[in-house]
Write a structure and sequence with these properties.
GO molecular function, one term: ABC-type amino acid transporter activity
Protein name: ABC transporter
Largest sheet: 6 strands, mixed
Mean pLDDT: 96
Helix content: 25-40%
Distance between the termini: 38 Å
Strand order of the largest sheet: 6-7-8-3-9-10
Low-confidence stretches: none
Number of strands: 10
Bound molecules: adenosine-5'-diphosphate, magnesium ion
Main location: membrane
Number of helices: 8
Keywords: Amino-acid transport, ATP-binding, Nucleotide-binding, Transport
Shape: globular
Organism: Mangrovibacter phragmitis
Oligomer: single chain
Amino acid sequence: MNKSAISLSRITKSFGSTQVLKEISLDVMPGEVLVLIGASGSGKSTVLRIMSGLEHADGGEIWVNDVPLHDSKRSREICGHVGMVFQQFNLFPHKTALGNVTLALIKAQKMPESEANKRGMAALERVGLAERANHYPAQLSGGQQQRVAIARALAVEPKIMFFDEATSALDPELVGEVMEVMRSLARDGMTMVVVTHEMGFARKTADRVVFMDQGIIAEQGSPEQLFVNPQNPRTQQFLSRVL
Ligand code: ADP
Ligand code: MG
């Protein structure tokens, strides 16, 4: 039996009187790379935030790594099972790359510093930045800073990684190195949910592409299906604007 890494069933979410998610149902399988695309305001970030436990759904059920996130008493159990990377890197400027990567391990997980450093170095190695471990954020390029943020997320050894427009704040020439790290995680079998405007990444790396439109999943399929032969006029319209 194949068991989902993430399972959303009829998830709803409103902010004030605006319903931003309208009964979203979606399963992500272990090792799957799911790319969420859609216009600004369609609800992509809200879905990611709910999946990662940062936000509570109003209704529906959501299971992530067997943790029922809809159960507020148990939703905190997800911490440490998932990693999240945002558009803004949010590194502490007065801490080195390694210091940023190990902070949560030492403070939240109470890991001994020597062990945290070992894990942190392995994570920096994973993103190709071991030799920059003692550099401060200001001494790193934007692409390197975002790779440190990815290493920080990886250091907790998450089973799932979420990326919310991880390359949107980067100068164009720095996008590639971050995408390459994401691609290598995908190749290694990491379960990933990725919100991106990089349609090249979606085409090449996604196992499945989900198109969101005004709080619903309007269409989903393989990159081939979605990009070459979209069925929904809204998908066609969106793609004609971004491709
Ligand atoms: P996307 O990531 O696809 O651009 P979001 O999930 O960020 O979309 O937002 C979906 C809708 O929900 C938007 O209309 C946005 O303005 C609204 N929204 C998101 N977060 C909040 C919030 N914390 N408070 C009020 N409205 C919000
Ligand atoms: Mg967003």
